[in-house]
Design brief:
Blueprint: H1 2-31, E1 54-55, E2 61-67, E3 72-78, E4 82-91, E5 103-109, E6 115-116, E7 118-120, E8 124-126, E9 133-140, E10 157-167, E11 176-187, H2 206-214, H3 219-222, H4 248-270
Length: about 280
């Protein structure tokens, strides 16, 4: 009976500790979810190049009016452990001026302007003759905190979205369209965590900013020149985590607690009932 009570108590303590750890890890991970605040306004226009890309926060829906043949650019931040998904909808004009046989395409580039492949989603789609809109989507691979230099893994930093009509006939050039782009990010967790982190996220202007901070005499301003490129404002609301936290911490602590409880239970089962009362102390 004593052994049974001891094992039951140890099991209850272990279950309580495991539940507390899992709850704390979920709450901590949830606090880092990317999203837009109510005060942030979604952009109503798009850039025409990487340098002029309009920033859109995860959870916002950017809109713009454009013409067929334009290249439309947006940017958004993505941190380690997140899996971004970009969705775009192109609304076509009426049937009298609708592009015939146009193929629309969405591409996503990282902070080094390397095109990133999509895990799944419809990245390009041809326009049907009777279609009034075209829907596109691209789900990226999970952003890694660190990667080899030769790899093309997605890394923390600014990402760029480019939306355009890949194929157009001369008669379809310049027709009015409207586009909507929405970015969402899913927290994947420790299943994709790696041992390492970047020194700094891949955002535009970081090198220029560091060079400007290292200059104390202000000679560039006196000479009428400047660095010319400002640091982008793309950044998660809670800052760049660089992948230091993941739910692996929770499972490691839970495994340690369960191992300790298993040791206590094994000792309680194998130590026996002690010295029998009929055996003298000296034997």
């Amino acid at each position: 009976m004593r052994t049974t009570k001891l094992l039951a108590t140890a099991g209850l303590l272990g279950a309580s500790a495991l539940t507390a750890l899992l709850g704390a890890g979920t709450a901590f991970a949830g606090s880092g979810d990317s999203g837009s605040s109510a005060d942030d306004k979604a952009p109503t226009e798009a850039g025409t190049s990487f340098r002029t890309a309009q920033e859109v926060k995860p959870g916002q829906q950017a809109t713009t009016g454009a013409s067929t043949g334009d290249y439309l650019y947006w940017s958004f931040p993505a941190d380690a452990g997140q899996r971004p998904t970009v969705k775009a909808t192109v609304k076509l004009p009426d049937s009298a001026a609708r592009p015939s046989g146009a193929t629309w395409r969405i591409d996503v580039y990282d902070g080094l302007r390397r095109r990133q492949s999509c895990m799944y989603g419809t990245q390009s789609r041809a326009t049907a003759p009777d279609a009034t809109s075209v829907g596109l989507s691209c789900t990226l691979r999970t952003v890694r905190a660190w990667s080899e230099q030769w790899a093309n893994d997605p890394l923390p930093g600014t990402y760029y979205v480019r939306l355009t009509a890949a194929t157009l006939t001369p008669s379809d050039q310049g027709l009015p369209v409207s586009a909507e782009v929405e970015v969402t990010s899913k927290e994947v967790g420790g299943s994709s965590a790696v041992d390492g982190s970047l020194a700094a996220p891949l955002v535009p202007g970081s090198t220029t900013k560091e060079a400007a901070a290292a200059s104390d005499d202000g000679s560039d301003e006196e000479n009428g020149s400047s660095t010319g490129q400002a640091l982008a404002t793309d950044e998660p609301e809670d800052g760049w985590s660089s992948g230091w936290w993941s739910d692996r911490w929770v499972w490691t602590a839970a495994g340690g607690i369960l191992a300790a409880l298993a040791g206590i239970g094994g000792y309680a089962l194998t130590r026996g009932a002690g010295r029998p009362s009929r055996v003298p102390p000296g034997m």
